């Protein structure tokens, strides 16, 4: 739990961010955040994050073609596609279904679609990770989720949906920021920033121990690697990367 000094600094940070708290109280911040601030900010952060995580993503997605279905096609569903920064890593001919709870990324998304014409784009669904009812059970070969599990309402429900839509033998790929080691300074700052960060960045939680959720989900095989992706002034350095097979 947060220590007294963390709570004190947390209050100080909330004081600095009081306009956001006020706008939130008035019901103005969330729609503005969803429509304007978050898509704009995420695209800026994604640029920095993509540079730092590129080698991990190249390595992560290298074996995607191994999960092609019996037809020889790879049907891939991405949860929380955002502006499509993962498209460049998908193999040619891959059939992509994009989903996001926030439909306001269209500009960046269409730009990345134009850049990555080696893929077939099937459809874009406005859907939360916990509710993919528009996607039939067992209908995809791979599900991808990067920097999304931090902000879903329920990680376990999302992973249940992932396992439902995957065909047997299909794979779930992830790269997510997670809670730091509890005795570390990073964890201390995660504790300090937590409430303000969650408000400002559309529900993003800094202290989720997502590897535990993945270990509890019913994957037949699970590969998880703990890595560090440092972005200046951001308390999101500890990450996990890997994939699970249904």
UniProtKB/TrEMBL annotation:
Matches recorded under PANTHER family: METHYLTRANSFERASE LIKE 7A, METHYLTRANSFERASE LIKE 7B
Originating organism: Molothrus ater (Brown-headed cowbird)
GO molecular function annotation: S-adenosylmethionine-dependent methyltransferase activity
Protein name according to UniProt: MET7A protein
Residue stretches making up the Methyltransferase type domain: 77-174
InterPro entries according to UniProt: Methyltransf_11, SAM-dependent_MTases_sf, Thiol_S-MT
Transmembrane segments: 7-29
SUPFAM superfamilies to which the protein is assigned, alphabetical: S-adenosyl-L-methionine-dependent methyltransferases
